[in-house]
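Supplementary Text 2. Reproducibility record for the structural model of the 95-residue chain.

All settings were left at their defaults, and a single model was retained for analysis rather than an ensemble. We include the record here because the model underlies the residue-level annotations in Supplementary Table 4.
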Amino acid sequence: MKDPYIIPRRLDDPELIGFWTIDEFAGMIIPFTWGILSQHILIGIIVAFGAWFALRKAKAGRASSWVAHAVYWYLPAGILGLKATPPSHCRLLAG
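Retained model, structure tokens:
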């Protein structure tokens, strides 16, 4: 007899664009676009592949939002556009 409840197996999978996650795609499209605009398409493809490989290795074994956390921590506050979070340089908060 079949189980009357259907449990999805892939509920926590990240959103994909083609075969890549959103951050991997962004890491690939920026060098590729630069290669097209500067008329160095082959160099753009090689750099895009290198960026994809580096991001893939950097994210291995970490949370899927690790790149967003690193951007919040190390880059200026306006990059992510978060308004409800304190700046990353504030280490002591009242409360």
